[in-house]
């Protein structure tokens, strides 16, 4: 019988907490089922096997902050048909991107001592260095979404985002709306995919699953301005969007 040639996949990570890869590992049997149809040939965190590309897709978590990481990212781009950003660090610069440039020196000294010479640069999304074909958003990603997106790719389809906002999923979960009770939330502009997990747990949504293409940022800012201060609104939008041009151009102008 002819041996099935399975597409080669690589999973890489740069600077981050590795929580999104742990989310993939948490798939357990579902991951093994997926491996019947693909061949993960390079995944430092989860396996010893390491084979050369080229890869159908490189799924990359984290953000590159050293020259070596940037070179590896460029090499992966050259050797992969598709690059998927895995998680908010890779797609939006995420948590590593929050740090204020002017504070970095101070934090380095506090943590590593006076003599430490940092080699790291600012955390920015992968798309600042290479073309990214699709972002599997989230902090962390929803493992079931990872399966759905990879299955769409294996079926020859262009992966798509869920066709709803976080608010839609929040309503399905039966949560009372925070905005009605005077509490900020970015759910209306946030791409669905997490089943509104934070709001269900009592926290606001910071839209870590990315902004919807049709996001009406001016309308949401108007609502938030009636609820809270400019500083607080900025804090919400810069949690995951500090490095995104959409935020820089639109939202900051609106808050002037
Ligand atoms: S997106 Fe969040 S969970 Fe994923 S690696 Fe970054 S910080 Fe960790
Ligand atoms: S609490 Fe947030 S996510 Fe839920 S419906 Fe209200 S604005 Fe939308
Ligand atoms: S509720 Fe918002 S912040 Fe929380 S996981 Fe979903 S998109 Fe991210």
Automatic annotation (TrEMBL):
Residue ranges constituting the NADH:ubiquinone oxidoreductase-like 20kDa subunit domain according to the UniProt record: 17-152
Sorted UniProt keywords: Coiled coil, Oxidoreductase
Superkingdom classification of source: Bacteria
Gene3D superfamilies named in the record: NADH:ubiquinone oxidoreductase-like, 20kDa subunit (3.40.50.700)
Gene Ontology MF terms: iron-sulfur cluster binding; oxidoreductase activity
Coiled-coil segments on the chain, per record: 17-51
Record protein name field: NADH:ubiquinone oxidoreductase-like 20kDa subunit domain-containing protein
């Amino acid at each position: 019988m002819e041996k099935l040639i399975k597409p080669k996949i690589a999973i890489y990570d740069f600077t981050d907490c590795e929580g999104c890869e742990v989310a993939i590992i948490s798939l357990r049997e579902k991951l093994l089922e997926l491996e019947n149809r693909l061949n993960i040939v390079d995944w430092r965190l989860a396996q010893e096997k390491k084979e050369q590309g080229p890869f159908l897709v490189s799924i990359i978590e984290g953000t590159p902050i050293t020259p070596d990481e940037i070179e590896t990212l460029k090499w992966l781009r050259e050797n992969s048909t598709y690059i998927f950003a895995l998680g908010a660090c890779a797609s939006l610069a995420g948590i590593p991107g929050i740090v204020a440039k002017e504070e970095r020196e101070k934090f380095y000294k506090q943590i590593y001592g006076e003599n430490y010479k940092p080699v790291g640069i600012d955390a920015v999304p992968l798309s600042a260095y290479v073309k990214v074909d699709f972002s599997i958003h989230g902090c962390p990603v929803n493992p079931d979404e990872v399966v759905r997106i990879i299955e769409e790719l294996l079926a020859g389809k262009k992966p798509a985002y869920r066709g709803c906002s976080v608010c839609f999923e929040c309503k399905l979960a039966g949560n009372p709306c925070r905005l009605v009770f005077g509490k900020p939330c970015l759910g209306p502009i946030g791409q669905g995919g997490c089943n509104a997990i934070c709001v269900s747990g009592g926290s606001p949504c910071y839209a870590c699953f990315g902004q919807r293409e049709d996001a009406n940022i001016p309308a949401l800012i108007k609502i938030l301005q009636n609820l809270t201060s400019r500083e607080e609104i900025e804090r919400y939008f810069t949690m995951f969007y500090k490095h995104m041009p959409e935020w820089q151009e639109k939202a900051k102008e609106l808050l002037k």
